[in-house]
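SEQUENCE-TO-STRUCTURE ENTRY
===========================

Subject: a protein chain together with a token-level encoding of how that chain folds.

Sequence line: the amino acid chain in single-letter code, read from start to end.

Question of interest: how does this chain fold, as expressed in backbone structure tokens?
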Amino acid sequence: MALKKHHKIIIGGASSLLILFIIVSSILTYTLFARQEINYIKLNNHLKEIQIDTQSKINELTSILTNTQKELKSLDTQLGSIDEEFELLKASAGEDFSGIIDSAIKSVVTIRTDLSQGTGFIIHEEGYIVTNSHIMQGATSAGIITYDDTMHNVNLIGENAAMDIALLKIDGNYEILELENSDNIQIGEKVIAIGNPLGLQFSVSEGIVSAINRPGLNNIEAYIQTDAALNPGNSGGPLINKQGKAIGINNFKIGGGESLGFALESNYIKDILNQISQQGLNMSLIG
């Protein structure tokens, strides 16, 4: 049966509406998905920006923490240095030489012979010791007592009688007492003498440098004058400054006066020891 005209119009209109609905729905759907895609891209970009900014702040914070740690370490070092300077200042003021003595005295030795007793100190870690040659003069037997109260056999490497210096050797390895550059000695600076006066082992006396370049018994102007008490048994022991270095070797005192002790300056000691070691050992002990 053929459709009537008005039926055709109705069907055509419905079809058009359906097609139009599909087209509009497709457009709306596409627009919705397009907006979602745009929003997703924007959100993703925003997240990347946040991530980059966060990482940048983390890096900045890490850098700050690293610098802070370095500054704290530097501060610790500075504080340690300040503490050391403070101890040296105390020592220079005569308030507390104990720290310096505790370190230096371990390198001081007692020398006993069949004729006398004196002092020496270790100037090379392999057991080389400097003392006054008059301590060994005429002796047929000798021994050295180190700070740990151990008795050692001793060998005489060589001596310089004119300057009253002898180089001895014992077996073992030891802490050394460093020799100061005697050009740095200042009149009035605090010093201590370590020795064995009258047999009293490892005794300490405090004083100042009274003068430098004094003439000795050999008429050589190479001696430090000090008011630190020196007695028999102190000979050969070190005269130590506030840095814990030996500025001289205690040599003699003037018996008719008080507080008139003399020590051979350290630069002379270095030269003489190297001369002796070159002759006896074919080497220089001290640089």
